[in-house]
Amino acid sequence: MTTPSIPAWVWAWVLAGVVCVVALTTRTAALPSDGLGVRRFLVPIDETTTLSQTFVMTADRFHAIDVSAATTDEPVSGDLRFEIYDISRSVVLVHRADVPAEDVMKAATYRLEFPLFEQSAGVAYRLDVLASPSRPARGVALWATKGRRYAGGAMFINERERWADLAFTTISPAGRSIWRRLMDAPPARHGVPLGPVVIGALIGYWIALGVVLRLLA
User: Fold this and answer.
1) Separation of alpha carbons 88 and 125, rounded Å
2) DSSP class of residue 173?
3) Domain locations in the chain?
4) Of 13-27, 79-93, 182-196, which gets the smallest average pLDDT?
5) How many CB atoms lie within 10 A of CB 99?
6) For 24, which of 44, 53, 95, 179 could close a Cys bridge (C-beta 3.0–4.6 Å)?
7) Which residue(s) pair with 92 in the sheet?
8) CATH top-level class for 33-173?
9) How far apart (Å, rounded) are the C-alpha atoms in residues 79 and 68?
10) Mean pLDDT lowest for which of 18-32, 34-48, 181-195?
11) Residue 176 pLDDT > 60, yes or no?
């Protein structure tokens, strides 16, 4: 008894589905970041310390950056100042924010959000984290990892380059997959979620493709 072979149209139909899934779940751009490694260490932020990280943005519409924070032996108080500079041609301050240290410590990762930078692809930036002059932070430190891990920039403490990189992640819509962007999209008219509608339509087209391929076979 011979096993029936799978028709060619079925292989083509399945391949089309696989290609669609891969396209939906693949990120459209690799954004600058560095996760925590084995040789991690803390950099306390106080009146005497400015922690800096440079990076080159790989996508437009840069609008946030994540950092990893932890407490020191002191009680948490005061404000942290976050500054972002465009350092492509000259050093230009493009965003500044004073954030209560308690807010930074609410979770292991703090997200600094700012007005969207439309034309950010290829731009070199520097993130500075320091204690606010008006209400200096205490009891807060940021995580970094020893070694030359992120090739697109460097970490500095008080303007002195260190053999390490800050634990950070830049945020842009290009860093999310098409699937995630559809799921996060605001509802269309009448409050209908856009993501499920588009995904449903794609599934319908895929089923219709199978029918057409079967008929042609």
Assistant:
1) 7
2) G
3) 8-26+178-216, 33-173
4) 182-196
5) 16
6) 179
7) 86
8) mainly beta
9) 16
10) 181-195
11) no
